[in-house]
Every structure is written in structure tokens, then in C-alpha cells.
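Repro:
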Amino acid sequence: MLVMAMVLVAGCASVPRAVPPPVVSDPAPVVTTKIEPVLSAEVPGAASPAETPQTKPSRIFGKTDFRGLLKRAYVRLTIEDRERKGPAFFFIIGSPENQSVVPWKEGKVIEPGYFYLDIPPGEYRITRIAIPVGTTMAEEDVAVALDVPEESAVYVGTLIVDGTGERVKFGGVPVVKPGFEYHLEVLDEMPEAIREPGTPEAIGTLKLAKQLFQVESQE
């Protein structure tokens, strides 16, 4: 009996079990979702970088006329964005032949008289005028506004700064600093400026515009 039971078990093991066929269900439908572009919350409707036109620099031209105490080897003008969004520009008016003795390392040296300068479009203000005095410098605050439209050659006028006297300023570091008294004036001499030999080339294909320096306040 034991032998027969073992044979039966072995016989049952040799018969493969029926495997039920796999259940194939219908594939789920593919759902496509349209993704809308995400724009900056700070600038609604802002264009992508590929759609944003590149702003070309404009050019300003005019004349400087420094008199009295300001008739020095160099005069430095500090020009800042009126909203203070960008860095300041430093323009040093003097002879490029003597750049090695310029007391300031930063800035662009331009010739006295007529000048032609590339500058990004924007709203600016001349905020300081400085001149060398011995081993130091005298610096005074000014407020002369300048508007520069896009892709334009902008005539800004003749900037006359007359240094009328010396003075000593107290406070800050160092406590005693040299200063000067001055008078500012802007003249419209555009016909003369247009006749300058370098002006036609400076204008080139840019739009000619006139935005004179605007004296807001002076010492």
C-alpha cells in the first residue's frame, strides 16, 4: 500500500497543471496635456530672451569748458543712473598723453573740448566733480540730469564749469578736505558741434537727437 501511494503521488506530480490564459485588458487611452509657458510674476507677459530685442548703446556728444580753479590737468565727472540701478561711470577729462599721472585708476580719459562717448540708454545724473589738489583731490557734489534715448546720437550741449574759489570742508574722513566753489552753465551750440570734423562719423547711422544737460542744483 505504501508503494502504491508513492507511485500515485509521483504520477500526479508528472502531470503539468493547466495555466489559465493571461487576462488582456484594453490599453488605457493616452491623455495629452498642453503645457502653458510660465511667465515671470514680476513682469506679466514678459517675452522670452529669444523674443527680447538687444538694446544697442547710444552715443552722447558735446563739449566741456572748465574755467578758473577747474582749469587743471584733469577733471573727473561721476555719472550715475538716476534710479541707481547700475554702476557709476567715471569720465576723466584731460590729455591721454599723460595717463600715467592720472590720480584715479578707474574711468575713461577723454580729450578736453568736444567729446563722443558710448553709453547705454537711460536716465543719468552727474553727481560729483573732482580735481587733483597736490597728493589728494577736491570733490564737490553736483546735480546735472541727462536723458539718453535708445539707438541715438544725442547732443548734450556745452558744459561750462567755472571754479570761482577755494574752500575747506569739515567732516568725514579725513576731517578736513579741500573743496572749491563753482558755477555751472549749459549752452546750446549744436550747429557748431555738428560742424566738428569728428561729428558725422560719431553720428553714423544713429538717430540724431538733442537732450541738453539739465542743471538741477549747484553749490
